[in-house]
Amino acid sequence: MRVPVPVVLLLCLSVIGGMWWANTKGMDFMTPPTAARIAEIKEKAEASNAQPERMNEPVKPPTLRPGLPEAAAPDVAPQPPAIELGDLDSPPTLEAYSDRALDGHAKLAELAGVLEQEGEFQRALLAWERSLDMTKPDTAQAATAIAAIRRLRPTLPDWNNDPAAATHIVLHAGTGPSLAPGLKPVLEEAARELTLASGGTLRVTADLAVGKRNAPKGPIPAALWLSGPTKDSASTDVLSFTVEPTDDLTKEVYQTAFQLIASHLKRTARLTPPVEPAGEETHQQALKSNITRLSWREFGQSLNTATPDE
Questions:
Q1: Does residue 263 share a domain with residue 168?
Q2: Which residue of 53, 153, 236, 252 lies most exposed, with the fewest beta carbons within 10 A?
């Protein structure tokens, strides 16, 4: 069913007229506005026109009150420089990381720690040894390096497994007939321990000289020294000690041997001399940790030089 056009037009006019009447029935279109009303309308118009301009103005930073610090940028911790690990593909030498000695103990210890984290245990051990024998560590630093060496050394093979390639030196002792039977096995065991302590860089043999008569009653004297394998080889000093029948002969031999080696290295080597054992550490233990493998090699080489003719 279609609605006639006149009816549609009438309805449209009715809607428009009704809306106009509803919204304007209270308005007075004939009375002109007062001066106050005109001023009010003008003020609103000016305010409306100024609002977009303020929106386009640049935002000013807040003004801080006197005495308050300016807002600082967030602190960003500087990244430490990466540690240069060097050539990890070529086999290391016994002198590895000697060129880092000028960096000091702390840098070498840091390098050793990173190498250990990377699974480069032999290189880490070498770096710890350089921190001990090519720098001047204080007591705490030396203790840290020695503890690391003691931890790593048993997990690694000897530096040299070929006895023919090792430097031969001799551990000598001299005593009277009464002490000789007890001293001989201790001396031979000490020679084997020195070989192991050197990481195979040395081959140490024992030589016991027995006097024809005993000393008078009392403590029994003995003497210890090390030399190269021939009669004209260089030698350490000779140290003497005395023992009672109840004394620990093994302890005396290792203590004297350590003192001989440390004293000789201090006098002849370019390396930092080994430190004495501390706390409950024995001299036998110190031979394997306080003396680096490079120090052992230099010790053996120094004894395999001929002494000058007098």
A1: yes
A2: 53
DSSP strand pairing (202-210 vs 167-175) = parallel
Q: Which amino acid is at 199?
A: G
Closest by CA position to 236, among listed 268, 188, 280: 268
Pairing between strand 239-243 and 220-227?
antiparallel
Residues 234 and 145 in one domain: no
Same domain for 187 and 280, yes or no, is yes
> What is the distance of C-alpha 293 from the center of its chain?
20
The domain spanning residue 252 has which CATH number?
3.30.360.20
In this structure, the answer to whether residues 270 and 244 fall within a common structural domain is yes
DSSP state of 97: T
Q: Is 197 in contact with 296 (CB distance < 8 Å)?
A: yes
For residue 213, give both structure tokens.
């008569």
Helix%, strand%, coil% for the chain, nearest 5: 50, 10, 40
Q: Where are the beta strands (DSSP E) in 67-132?
A: none
Angle ∠(91,123,201) on CA atoms, nearest 5: 70
pLDDT in tens, 136-188: 999 999 999 999 999 999 999 999 999 999 999 999 999 999 999 999 999 99
Q: Please tell me whether residues 149 and 198 are part of one structural domain.
A: no
The residue range of the domain holding 185 is: 163-303
- Give the span between the Cα atoms of 300 and 298, in whole angstroms: 5
Residue 38's Cβ-count burial label (10 Å; 0-12, 13-18, 19+) is exposed
Q: How many domains does the chain have?
A: 2
Residue 292 domain-assigned (yes or no): yes
Q: What is the pLDDT of residues 42-99, one digit of tens each?
A: 676 666 655 554 445 555 555 555 554 554 555 666 555 578 888 888 999 999 999 9
- Cross-strand pairs, 207: 172
169, 151: one domain: no
